[in-house]
């Protein structure tokens, strides 16, 4: 059964945590089987790492990306196994776009796991460790954040890269330029600047070398037309041409993530209910601030799964 008013969204990096999905895995073999398949693709025991940590290793980009993808796909498979409705639309925040493409049948799961591991390695190695940073600017209009980055860049790079919700924009770039932009944002009235615990300036122009390397890896992976429409980060519209999808995935590495625009696009297409499939509740929080009248729930444990299936 397909629900024309339902969309599924998938989170990106930062939603992972030690011990995630343990309750569901104990009750539903499909969760463990999904992690087993990912472990075979990666060559190490991903579930053991997810359950036991350490958290510092789980936070490494080339590990985090397969972890979040696998958790999201496990929840998608469980949702379908339990008779959950097929959504009309899918979307993902940055890395979450790969989860959406797997759910849509456009990208094979094992291929996706290996691909995002490579993506993480390329993104991490694009900029020397310690030279880049990301910071969330709280309480300032988007245009003011963009202007602050423009004034602070100088000979370096700083850009507004994640438009997450009204009043929250993430900036990314060289450490010194990001710090100058923070001061400019505070002078313009920003309430807070919250550093992101990441080790590279994701989605900034500094990621172009990673995108070039990733394009070569992606060219070796089969992509098919999605069976469920996916709103891509680049362009915020569905695409059925695999070659164009490749281009969007490459560009996405160094382009901003327009999450506010994505959620508004869901509403404009008649979506009234959204389920976030993945560890954590980050996207649900964003969505509530973007579209307060849209029903939104995160599915990541037995209680939330039962509640979502019961609607």
Short description:
The chain is an alpha/beta fold. Helices cover 48% and strands 18% of the residues.
Describe this structure in words.
- By secondary structure, the protein is α/β, with parallel strands linked by helices.
- 48% of the residues lie in helices and 18% in strands.
- The protein is built from 14 helices and nine strands.
- The protein has a five-stranded parallel sheet with strand order 7-2-1-8-9.
- A hairpin with a 2-residue loop joins strand 4 and strand 5.
- Helix 2 runs antiparallel to helix 5 and helix 2 crosses helix 7.
What secondary-structure arrangement, pairings included, does this model have?
Blueprint: E1 2-10, H1 22-27, H2 29-42, H3 46-52, H4 55-58, H5 61-81, E2 86-92, H6 96-103, H7 109-125, E3 132-138, H8 142-152, E4 158-165, E5 168-174, H9 175-187, E6 192-195, H10 208-218, E7 229-231, H11 242-252, H12 259-268, E8 273-277, H13 282-290, E9 295-299, H14 302-309
Parallel strand pairs: 1-2, 1-8, 2-7, 8-9
Antiparallel strand pairs: 3-5, 3-6, 4-5
Task: Give the tags.
14 helices, four-stranded antiparallel β-sheet, globular, alpha/beta, five-stranded parallel β-sheet, 311 residues
SSE string, helix = H, strand = E?
Answer: EHHHHHEHHEHEEHEHEHHEHEH
Helix amount: 40-55%
User: Average pLDDT, to the nearest integer?
Assistant: 96
End-to-end C-alpha gap: 14 Å
- Tally of contiguous helical segments: 14
